[in-house]
Amino acid sequence: MPDSDAIVAELTIGELSERSGVPASALRFYERKGLIASRRTVGNQRRYHRSALRRLAFIRASQSVGIPLSVIEGVLEYVPHHVSPTRELWLKASECWGEAINTRIATLERMRDQFAECVGCGCLSFDQCQLVNRDDKLAGQGAPPPFDS
């Protein structure tokens, strides 16, 4: 018979879902991906260590800033499943992902500015507009395009 401390330290899938706000289907998906782990009871029911709550918080917070699940998975593979992600892990992840986030922000700002410029012009020309015809490889051959319809 398991000791009472082990039972207290575990959550059912319903309890984990309720406490974390993550649907049970997502919990099962995360488990298949190896992001969280459970043990199975004699009746084949999942039991999650309470540290899964912090792992889920780490996953959801990371996803909310656009970090792909595959990248999150790469970080969490170094943290044992029964151990909560630490403040140090958050800081390291922030350092690693900060540059990628800043690059994404800069790209989005350029896209916003380019779109605002294009909308201001209103031409939507296939000959000149970079939003309509980005990286036009045939532009040097003049208009119309050298293809027969």
TrEMBL record:
Superkingdom of the source species: Bacteria
Keyword Iron: yes
Keywords, comma-separated and alphabetical: 2Fe-2S, DNA-binding, Iron, Iron-sulfur, Metal-binding
Bilayer-spanning residue ranges: none
Domain HTH merR-type, residue spans: 10-78
A Pfam family hit: MerR_1
InterPro entries on file: DNA-bd_dom_put_sf, MerR-type_HTH_dom, MerR_fam, Redox-sen_tscrpt-act_SoxR
UniProt key word Oxidoreductase: no
Designated name of the protein: Redox-sensitive transcriptional activator SoxR
Organism: Microtetraspora fusca
